[in-house]
Amino acid sequence: MLCLRVAQAVVLALLELAIIAQTATSTVALNTAAKAAGKLYFGSATDTPELPDSAYLAILSDTAMFGQLTPGNSMKWDSIEPEQNVFNFTGGDQIVALAETTGKLMRGHNLVWHSQLPDWVMYGTWTPQTLTSVIRTHVWTEVSHYRGKIFYFIASESSVVTLSQDAWDVVNEPLNDNGTMRADVFYDILNSSYINLALQTAHAADPYAKLYINDYNLEYASPKIDAMVQLVEDLLVAGAPIHGIGFEGHFILGEVSGTQLQTNMERITALGLEVAITELDVRIQLPATDADLKQQKADYMTVVQACMAVPGCVGVTLWDYTDRHSWIPSTFPGQGEACPWNANLLRKPAYDGIAMGFNAP
After folding, report:
1. Beta-sheet pairing, 41-46 with 68-71
2. Active-site residue among 142, 173, 219, 279?
3. At residue 320, what are phi and psi to the nearest 5 degrees?
4. What is the pTM of this model?
5. For residues 145 and 109, what is the distance between their CA atoms, to the nearest angstrom?
């Protein structure tokens, strides 16, 4: 009997150690940590299918934890304008309302992208003139609808109201990994001029919003970051209203280079633009081990430290904060565990990595 009890105690102790290895220890709220470190926000993507999840929503609504929201899908073209000149803002309005009621910054995502286009755009028979009109109508209508909402007002103790802005992802993923322009309906008809067109139209619709180009795989030394730098330089020469570049940050475990990420962000800020980490996650080959979670913690810390090292990096956004609602398993079969909260909404070691990246305990 004594041996059995000893064995049970050993098993329980090992289980406790396993739980500790998979659980965060930091008690700091991450948006609080980000703002204390001089950043504008720490945020999360979300969308309407997640909002009925009350436990999820309670964490998301805590502005000490998240100070910014990005709609994952509800502001994309197929949701906003599924038929030509027929606009549906229902989903986007729900996310904006959540941001307003919880005092968060709102990032608009996105206006012009090669993916999630309705068939009438993707397969239409366009001339340069007709496609220009379609882009102008879509961008103007959507940005005008949310004018004054893709930012929020903060009343200081002296009752002086100041404006704190977030941004629109105006053009999403225009580049191939080899540095060439992505062939899609917009580029095929208008060449790269569609980018300036979209930026100019968004600026005319809301002169106060910051306007971004957002893309993935900008974090490494590659032809793609070289092409993005060149694209920004060309846009600035053309007088385009471009204010920032979004580094999406969809990483694979153990493949994060903080030095390269910092260098690439500095190449953009040297041109007078700001940058942001806009869609951060770090995916793992399943099943995840304790060693994997330890590495993920280090990877998240490295990304946040890179942002901290660049004054023009304004904030960090997770591409949803929990594995419960992550896009990774459906897109990358056999991979997952990419977020700082697990599917049971418990904080993983990655949470500590983020806190450490912001120099918080």
Report:
1. parallel
2. 279
3. 75, 145
4. 0.92
5. 14
Give the whole-angstrom CA distance, residue 173 versus residue 181: 9
Catalytic site includes residue 233: no
Report the Cα–Cα distance between both ends of the chain, in Å, rounded.
44
How would CATH label the architecture of 31-358? Answer: Alpha-Beta Barrel (3.20)
Each residue's pLDDT tens digit, 105-155: 999 999 999 999 999 999 999 999 999 999 999 999 999 999 988 754 343
Query: 174 near 215, Cβ under 8 Å?
Result: yes
Two structure tokens written together for 110 = 């996105």
Under 8 Å between Cβ of 213 and 240: no
Q: How confident is the model over 275-327, as pLDDT tens digits?
A: 999 999 999 999 999 999 999 999 999 999 999 999 999 999 999 999 999 99
What the block records as the tokens of 252 is 């694979």
Structure token digits, residue 323:
């594995």
* pLDDT value for 151: 57
